[in-house]
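re: ur question from yesterday

yeah so i grabbed the chain u mentioned. its 175 aa long if i counted rite. heres the sequnce exactly as i have it in my notes:
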Amino acid sequence: MSSIASGPLPAPSRRALLRSLAGTLRVQPLSPGALASLRRGTSADVARQAAFHRLIADVPESWLADDALLRWATVVQCLAITGAPASHGESDGRMLATAGLTESRFARLLASHGDGLSDQLLLVARFLHAKDVRPTWVDLGELVLTDTVLPARADVIRLVLARDYYRSPSTLAPT
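ran it thru and got these structure tokens back, copy pasting raw so excuse formatting
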């Protein structure tokens, strides 16, 4: 008799999947060509790449319905642009501040929704890549994943990002 309980396993959280996604890129890097293909084009282009499907293999199918697949593609594209983080260190908000993201760019990011949010995240990813900063993409990724489907959760994430951004020593005004 088996001691393993039958039935479906509990679904992982979005945050756990986002951490796992970054970990997969760190531990099992994609070929340079696959990474380049994930950096280019639109979210729809990224969603058609085999490398994208390899990375999201653990995401429950029910989480990929409607436009959720494109939101996951935005997260993967941002990770491909910046590269996988070395660890799960600083929060995304603090890393944005440390990288020198201007307050006006940060405000545009927080105010964006839907496709505009995806566009802002891609701009931020390119900025971070130029500064050689690799965020965890946990808060930023969860923001794009929840923005249109769980607006109350997205608002909480915006508050967390803002708190961490403004509490960073790089954004505190000298006294």
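noticed a couple things. The CA atoms of residues 13 and 25 lie 19 Å apart. also The mean pLDDT is 88.
anyway ttyl
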